[in-house]
Amino acid sequence: MIILVTGLVVLFIGLYLAINQNYMAYLKEYEFEQWARIRGSKQGFMVFMDHIALLNWLLRGDYEQCSNKETHVLGGLAHKRAYWAKHLIMTGVILIFLGFLLSLVFLV
After folding, report:
1. Maximum distance among all alpha carbons in the chain?
2. Helix (H) and strand (E) counts for the chain?
3. What are the residues whose beta carbons fall under 8 Å from the beta carbon of 61, sequence distance 6 or more?
4. CA separation for the pair 70, 28 (Å, rounded)
5. pTM for the predicted model, two decimal places
6. Rounded to 10 degrees, what is the CA torsion of 19, 36, 72, 76?
7. What is the pLDDT of residues 94-103, one digit of tens each?
Protein backbone atom coordinates (compact mmCIF):
# COMPACT_ATOMS: atom_id res chain seq x y z
CA MET A 1 0.00 0.00 0.00
CA ILE A 2 2.93 2.34 0.62
CA ILE A 3 4.04 1.89 -2.98
CA LEU A 4 0.53 2.68 -4.19
CA VAL A 5 0.30 5.87 -2.12
CA THR A 6 3.79 6.92 -3.18
CA GLY A 7 2.80 6.37 -6.81
CA LEU A 8 -0.28 8.55 -6.38
CA VAL A 9 1.77 11.34 -4.78
CA VAL A 10 4.40 11.18 -7.54
CA LEU A 11 1.67 11.15 -10.20
CA PHE A 12 -0.02 14.23 -8.73
CA ILE A 13 3.30 16.08 -8.51
CA GLY A 14 3.94 15.23 -12.17
CA LEU A 15 0.48 16.46 -13.18
CA TYR A 16 1.07 19.67 -11.24
CA LEU A 17 4.35 20.23 -13.09
CA ALA A 18 2.61 19.54 -16.41
CA ILE A 19 0.46 22.64 -15.92
CA ASN A 20 2.77 25.42 -17.10
CA GLN A 21 0.48 28.42 -16.72
CA ASN A 22 3.17 31.12 -16.89
CA TYR A 23 4.62 29.98 -20.21
CA MET A 24 1.13 29.49 -21.60
CA ALA A 25 0.21 33.08 -20.68
CA TYR A 26 3.47 34.32 -22.23
CA LEU A 27 2.72 32.51 -25.50
CA LYS A 28 -0.84 33.86 -25.57
CA GLU A 29 0.43 37.41 -25.13
CA TYR A 30 3.62 37.56 -27.20
CA GLU A 31 3.57 34.57 -29.58
CA PHE A 32 -0.13 34.25 -30.38
CA GLU A 33 0.40 32.71 -33.82
CA GLN A 34 2.48 29.95 -32.28
CA TRP A 35 -0.07 29.49 -29.50
CA ALA A 36 -2.88 29.18 -32.05
CA ARG A 37 -0.93 26.40 -33.81
CA ILE A 38 -0.33 24.60 -30.51
CA ARG A 39 -3.89 24.90 -29.30
CA GLY A 40 -5.66 23.97 -32.50
CA SER A 41 -9.45 24.27 -32.53
CA LYS A 42 -10.34 23.18 -29.01
CA GLN A 43 -13.30 24.69 -27.21
CA GLY A 44 -13.51 26.00 -23.63
CA PHE A 45 -14.32 22.71 -21.91
CA MET A 46 -11.09 21.17 -23.24
CA VAL A 47 -8.76 23.48 -21.29
CA PHE A 48 -6.62 20.70 -19.85
CA MET A 49 -5.91 19.53 -23.38
CA ASP A 50 -4.18 22.89 -23.91
CA HIS A 51 -1.75 21.95 -21.15
CA ILE A 52 -1.11 18.56 -22.72
CA ALA A 53 -0.58 20.14 -26.15
CA LEU A 54 1.87 22.64 -24.63
CA LEU A 55 3.66 19.83 -22.78
CA ASN A 56 4.10 17.87 -26.02
CA TRP A 57 5.23 21.01 -27.86
CA LEU A 58 7.86 21.71 -25.20
CA LEU A 59 9.11 18.12 -25.12
CA ARG A 60 9.54 18.13 -28.89
CA GLY A 61 11.65 21.27 -28.61
CA ASP A 62 9.51 23.28 -31.00
CA TYR A 63 10.03 26.41 -28.89
CA GLU A 64 13.46 26.69 -30.54
CA GLN A 65 11.81 27.51 -33.88
CA CYS A 66 10.25 30.75 -32.55
CA SER A 67 11.84 33.99 -33.65
CA ASN A 68 11.74 35.69 -30.25
CA LYS A 69 14.88 35.21 -28.09
CA GLU A 70 12.91 35.45 -24.84
CA THR A 71 10.71 32.60 -26.05
CA HIS A 72 13.83 30.46 -26.35
CA VAL A 73 15.00 31.25 -22.82
CA LEU A 74 11.60 30.77 -21.20
CA GLY A 75 11.01 27.72 -23.39
CA GLY A 76 14.24 26.15 -22.12
CA LEU A 77 13.08 26.61 -18.53
CA ALA A 78 9.62 25.29 -19.36
CA HIS A 79 11.25 22.36 -21.20
CA LYS A 80 13.03 21.32 -17.99
CA ARG A 81 9.75 21.45 -16.11
CA ALA A 82 8.01 19.42 -18.85
CA TYR A 83 10.85 16.87 -18.78
CA TRP A 84 10.41 16.37 -15.03
CA ALA A 85 6.63 16.24 -15.41
CA LYS A 86 6.87 13.51 -18.03
CA HIS A 87 9.19 11.37 -15.94
CA LEU A 88 7.25 11.87 -12.72
CA ILE A 89 3.98 10.94 -14.43
CA MET A 90 5.53 7.78 -15.87
CA THR A 91 7.12 6.88 -12.52
CA GLY A 92 3.83 7.47 -10.72
CA VAL A 93 1.91 5.24 -13.12
CA ILE A 94 4.53 2.49 -12.78
CA LEU A 95 4.45 2.70 -8.97
CA ILE A 96 0.64 2.58 -8.95
CA PHE A 97 0.71 -0.48 -11.20
CA LEU A 98 3.32 -2.18 -9.00
CA GLY A 99 1.36 -1.26 -5.87
CA PHE A 100 -1.81 -2.85 -7.23
CA LEU A 101 0.09 -5.89 -8.43
CA LEU A 102 1.84 -6.40 -5.09
CA SER A 103 -1.37 -5.89 -3.14
CA LEU A 104 -3.09 -8.55 -5.25
CA VAL A 105 -0.24 -11.00 -4.81
CA PHE A 106 0.21 -10.58 -1.08
CA LEU A 107 -3.42 -10.12 -0.07
CA VAL A 108 -4.73 -13.15 -1.94
Report:
1. 59
2. 5, 0
3. 79
4. 14
5. 0.82
6. 20
7. 999 999 999 9
